[in-house]
Structures are given as C-alpha cells and as structure tokens.
Design goal:
80 residues, mainly alpha
Amino acid sequence: MTTLGLVAIAAALLIGLGALGTAIGFGLLGGRFLESVARQPELAPQLQTKMFLLAGLLDAVPMIGVAMGLYFIFANPFVG
C-alpha cells in the first residue's frame, strides 16, 4: 500500500469514529436530559441551558476530526 492510500484510510477512520463517538454522546446527553427533566420539571430551563452548552462542545469533536482529515488528505505532510 502506498502512503497516500494509508492516509486516506486514516482520514476515513478519523472522521467516521469521531462521528460515531459524537452520536453516542448526543444520545446519552439527550437521554439523561429527559430523565432529569422528568424527575424535576422545575429545573428544566437550567438543565436545558447546560445541555445546549455541552451539545455545542460535543459537536466540536467531529468538526476537528474533519479538519484534521482534510488536512491529511490535501496538505499531506507524509508525502515528500
């Protein structure tokens, strides 16, 4: 296999596993939020604010992965 092929596989894994981890994180975050609001409905606005803040931080993970994958594909530092 060439270096370019290995970099393409690495970029695909980087993007795919980042998206998978984020999807699992969003599922857990949403489920726990609904459980918390069901237990204490009066805290819903505070919990919603914290949930959206964490969702924004969690959404940054696959974006960084995509940026790194695109960097490795188009500006490959491993190809001389």
